[in-house]
Amino acid sequence: MTSLAEKLSTRQLPGPEQEPVILHRRRIYIIPTRYGGLFTLLLSLMLIGSINYNNSLGFALTFLMGSVAMISMLHAHRNLSGLQIRSGTTESVFYGQTIAFPIVLSNMNALDKVSLMLSNKDSVSIYMTIPAASTITTQLLQSSQHRGLKPLGKIKISTEYPLGLFHAWSWVYPDANAIVYPAPEKNAPPPDFENDGQEQLQNNLHGEDDFAGLRHYQPGDSIRSIAWKQSARGNGLFTKQFAGSGGKTLWLDWDIPDTHSLEHRLSRLCQWVIFCESTGSDYGLRIPGFTLAPGKGHKHRHLCLSALALFDQGGPGQ
Fold first, then answer.
1. Which of 38, 70, 172, 304 maximizes the CB count within 10 A of its CB?
2. Does this model's pTM top 0.70?
3. How far is Cα 177 from Cα 163, in angstroms, rounded to an integer?
4. Which CATH number applies to 4-179: 3.30.9.10, 3.30.470.10, 2.60.40.10, 3.90.180.10?
């Protein structure tokens, strides 16, 4: 349900709010639903009929049903009052993958919060019930339509409990953002590093390094590095990691002759970062305005991919 009243109620949320956000009475809005409007029309007709025929039973029934409607409005408001909302840690994804924004909802009241709906303009609505004195975590799923920083934006939590006569809602602006990496280029050629680190890379490719362990498969990992024996146990795909024995490092440079656009170049560099990480090589990144010293590991990989994701968007390198 979207109305002028709901649009006006969002004007007080210019940006992300300090968390946790607590829903107090001044943040909760309520209007009749379509059924509530029909119910009001029915009560009006009953009241007119009772006045016309001076029917005391008609008056009693009209006022009784009106009282039920007013109590329903109070319950709808109380169903949201006191709810605490905050965002969780959002994992970065590659372009084309689904972003999962964790939302943590806490009900510190002595009554259950029943038939709540959580929604966002880019997400599928989620229905939930929060037991008394408990906390639950749910996820709003959104598609990654472009690389870069993807904010969750405003979310709406609403209810029509208990009779569906009134729609109560509140807008919340969590400080939740996800980084969308560029899509790794499929069938990308192996990186050409000229001299620096070429020997190290060749050793890794030919299996001359020591086995260092397993990690879960990530998009872009070489098929040759997949641990098929461990993956066959049904716990997902795993990739072998090797500890390099050479002392040279690899540099991923911005100048790539055969790339035809900015996004193509970022996609190629993204694939090379994944490739270097899967081989256990030390690698650095050099793009206009940003240089990251050689390293490896999950944090180093995230820094490299984040620099590529935020390039020309006011992030690293700008």
1. 304
2. yes
3. 36
4. 2.60.40.10
